[in-house]
Design goal:
The complex is a heterodimer of chains A (about 160) and B (about 600). Chain A is an alpha+beta fold. Chain A has two domains: about 5-80, Alpha-Beta Plaits; about 85-155, ACT-like. Chain A, domain 2 (Alpha-Beta Plaits, 2-Layer Sandwich). Chain A is built from four helices and nine strands, in the order βαββαββαββαββ. In chain A, the strands form two sheets. In chain A, strands 5, 6, 7, 8 and 9 form a five-stranded antiparallel beta sheet that branches. In chain A, strands 2-3-1-4 form a four-stranded antiparallel beta sheet, covered by helices on one side. Chain B has 23 helices and 17 strands. Chain B has helices at about 5-15, 30-35, 50-60, 80, 85-95, 120-125, 135-150, 165-170, 200-210, 220-225, 230-240, 270-275, 290-295, 330-335, 350-370, 380-390, 405-410, 435-445, 455-460, 465-470, 485-495, 510-515, 525-540; strands spanning about 20, 40-45, 70-75, 100-105, 130, 160-165, 215-220, 240-245, 260, 280-285, 305-310, 325, 395-400, 450-455, 475-480, 520-525, 545-550. In chain B, the strands form three sheets. Chain B has a six-stranded parallel beta sheet, with helices on both faces. In chain B, strands 9-8-7-10-11-12 form a six-stranded parallel beta sheet, sandwiched between helices. In chain B, helix 12 packs antiparallel against helix 15 and helix 15 packs across helix 16. The relative contact order of chain B is 0.11. At the A-B interface, helix 1, helix 2 and strand 4 of A face loops of B.
């Protein structure tokens, strides 16, 4: 199914995030990630929602439902060609340091801490697919723990 | 000044006259202040749900008057607030603007599971248009003003304000200022489009001019924007028949030659068949819910759809539109009614066809109404509603409950007064009628109000007889008692092989109940007594309870089974093969 991203700006009032998550549950939308941060404008939150949906009408329905919130400032869909979708993963890996060497230059990661000869904590940034492919190449079996932020997106 | 005073000052500024509710620990300060101010008529319900429906009654009935009001109810925290939930969910489904004010435990004990603490905002958020919890006295007044603005802007809906007890009692700073007249809420992205854009309007006009078999839909939005007369003007100008949703009833005179009556599950044959064969549907202020469309993939397959609707999220939600007009129904109709490019077409063949549909059940219904009793000699609801309609010239205000009798009232009352039908539709809340009728009567005191319930629904909020007694309200109360939950029984007859699980019901002596509340009562068991009893109710000054003993096997037809398409429409009673053998009802119990 096609991955879609919806960017919503909402007044930062009590309960807005709760309303968004309730809407997702109530309408049974198939949401992958939901990230929230403050925006450049004081009192306005920035929310990025990614979901898997092929049906155009259903995506429009999500947007229209969000536009009904009294706290709404604006809502739009971001298409992949005209926006950047990025996330960050913090990963605890059990691999020999030499194994990691081969990924330098090919992936955008930073070693935050080397806890022992073969335990590393890494920060990897990039598109969801890029992070997935990094983890696949390193080997999922080496991952001890992982924390991913979920997608945030910006229009070009 | 205190939070409680500012709350009431704001309500007064917004023109609120009545407050419905029930006091308790967390709302006492506001009630006390209300008593001191003496600016409102307080109506004590006997259950908080009653207060919510009374508020709905005010909002629904007053919108067509020169003084539209938003109904306000007020309850305490915890169970007091929770008991409002059904009434608020009902208002949300039916786009009714109203305001619920609930007391909350003090901010210092919120989240400690204090006595009568419930997460009211959390519970009400998905069933209200907006919820608020002001945390300081200086937020209260602006919150109330914003609440009124939101409730009434675009599609109406219920608002809840949950006020902690300490916020009610706390003082604002000496330099507190609030200008009600110049206040504008700061909601930068919350707006709606009242005026239709020209481009879709032009495409709509082209489709209308080209269409051979169009049907116009009159939805709740026509009532809510007071557009009944404008709709008729437009329909007459282009000569297009009109089908109503249940909520659209009473927007136009029910017996207008262009009116096909109600559409949908229990709609008329002529409305539903016309929709099936239409090449164009022009729908005003409605949301194509499942009771209207039946099976979606079989719905109006050959028709283009023009959808005029104030709430953008309703457009293309259930039915794909050819032309979407996201605008106020009245303003759109006003433009259309005056548009010189629209042409009158005789549509003779279309109207002949529709007349044929009209005849499918006309004779059966006429005979049933005339016979007036079922096989067991008990009264038919449709006859009672028909007689009521005749005696009142279709002029009165009708507040049905939910169920079979509601569909009978929808189909057989000949509505002549604009905005005279007040029904729980989307939520279908049994027990809505009696309290809603109280609000309707207070909003329109000079008009006659009938609360019509079944024996089941009546007992769901029968405690509001106490409110009617105390407030000395002239509400005519009809109980159509068939000893069953009639609508469910009808489904059991048709789809559950006549097994009546959970539907037979023993009722109390309604006469003794009426007597307990000091209300006159009359039990009607014969056809001869129907008219005299209704006449007595009309002549009696004050509330009266009429109980009609009805035939449990009566069914409301036609019926499109839930999940079925228009082709599955049932037009004959169970066991009835032809009109000639229509005295057998195939009852299995």
């Amino acid at each position: 199914m096609k991955r879609r991203a919806i960017l919503a700006f909402m007044l930062d009032r009590p309960g807005v995030l709760n309303k968004v998550s309730m809407l997702i549950r109530k309408k049974m939308y198939n949401v992958d990630t939901l990230t929230v941060c403050s925006s450049r404008k004081a009192g306005v939150s920035r929310m990025t929602i990614t979901l898997r949906e092929d049906d155009e009408a259903k995506v429009q329905q999500v947007i229209k439902q969000l536009e009904k919130f009294t706290e709404v400032v604006s809502v739009k869909e971001l298409d992949t060609d005209h926006s950047y979708w990025r996330e960050v993963a913090v990963v605890k890996l059990e691999v020999p340091a030499s194994h990691l060497e081969s990924f330098h230059g090919r992936y955008n990661f930073e070693v935050l801490e080397q806890k022992s000869a073969d335990i590393h904590i890494l920060q990897v940034a990039g598109s969801t697919r890029r992070i997935d492919s990094f983890l696949d190449e390193v080997g999922q079996e080496h991952v001890i723990e992982i924390a991913r932020t979920g997608v945030t997106a910006l229009e070009k | 000044m205190t939070g409680k005073h500012l709350l009431l000052r704001a309500l007064k500024d917004k023109g609120v006259k009545y407050i419905f509710g029930y006091t308790g620990g967390a709302i006492m300060p506001i009630f006390d202040e209300m008593d001191k101010m003496g600016a409102f008529r307080f109506v004590m319900s006997r259950h908080e749900q009653g207060a919510a429906f009374m508020s709905q009654g005010i909002s629904r009935a007053s919108l067509s008057t020169g003084n539209p009001q938003i109904g306000v109810c007020m309850t305490t925290s915890g169970p007091g607030a929770m008991n409002l939930a059904t009434g608020l969910a009902d208002a949300y489904m039916d786009s009714v603007p109203m305001l619920a004010v609930t007391g909350q435990v003090a901010t210092g004990v919120i989240a400690t599971d204090a006595f009568q603490e419930s997460d009211v905002v959390g519970v009400m958020m998905p069933i209200c248009k907006q919820t608020y919890m002001p945390l300081a006295a200086d937020e209260v007044e602006a919150t109330v003003h914003e609440a009124f603005y939101v409730a009434n802007t675009g599609r109406g809906g219920p608002i809840l304000i949950d006020i902690p007890k300490d916020v009610q009692n706390s003082q604002v700073a000496d330099d507190y200022q609030f200008e009600a007249k110049s206040y504008r809420p700061n909601l930068p992205g919350f707006y709606y489009h009242p005026t239709p854009e020209r481009e879709p309007l032009q495409r709509a006009i082209d489709l209308i001019n080209r269409s051979e078999r169009p049907v116009m839909f009159c939805g709740h939005g026509v009532v809510n924007s007071n557009a009944g007369k404008t709709l008729l003007k437009f329909a007459e100008k282009v000569n297009i028949p009109i089908a109503s949703t249940m909520h659209g009833l009473s927007a136009i005179p029910a017996d207008h030659p262009l009116h096909l009556g109600m559409m949908g599950m229990h709609g008329t044959v002529e409305a539903n068949r016309a929709i099936s064969e239409a090449d164009l549907l022009i729908s005003f202020g409605m949301r194509f819910d499942d009771r209207v469309t039946g099976k979606l993939n079989e719905y109006a397959q050959n028709a283009d759809v023009i959808h005029v609707e104030i709430d953008a999220s309703e457009i293309d939600k259930n039915v794909a539109t050819s032309v979407a007009i996201n605008a106020d129904v009245y303003r759109t109709l006003h433009v259309l009614a005056g548009d010189p490019m629209l042409t009158y077409k005789p549509r003779r063949r279309w109207f002949e066809k529709i007349e044929g549909f009209r005849q499918v059940m006309a004779e059966d219904l006429r005979q049933e109404i005339e016979t007036g009793v079922g096989d067991d000699g008990k009264l038919l609801m449709k006859t009672i509603v028909h007689q009521l309609s005749e005696l009142t010239d279709g002029q009165d205000l009708i507040v049905p409950d939910v169920g079979q009798h509601q569909m009978m009232a929808a189909r057989f009352y000949n509505f002549q007064t604009e905005n005279s039908w007040f029904a729980s539709g989307g939520a279908g809340t049994m027990g809505a009628s009696l309290p809603m009728a109280i609000g309707v009567k207070l909003a329109r005191p000079d008009e006659r109000v009938w609360s019509i319930s079944g024996d089941g629904g009546f007992q769901m909020n029968a405690q509001e007889l106490g409110t009617i007694m105390e407030q000395q309200l002239d509400v005519k109360i009809i109980i159509l008692n068939n000893g069953y939950l009639g609508m469910v029984r009808q489904w059991q007859t048709l789809f559950f092989d006549g097994r009546y699980a959970g539907t037979p019901m023993q009722s109390p002596d309604f006469g003794l109940m009426a007597q307990a509340y000091g209300l006159p009562y009359r039990k009607v068991e014969t056809l001869e007594d129907v008219i005299p009893a209704l006449q007595q109710a009309i002549e009696h000054k004050g509330a009266i309870v009429l109980e009609f003993v009805c035939d449990p096997s009566e069914v409301i037809l036609p019926m499109i089974p839930a999940g079925g398409g228009f082709e599955d429409m049932i037009v004959k009673r169970p066991g009835q093969q032809t009109p000639e053998t229509s005295n057998s009802d195939g009852e299995k119990s």
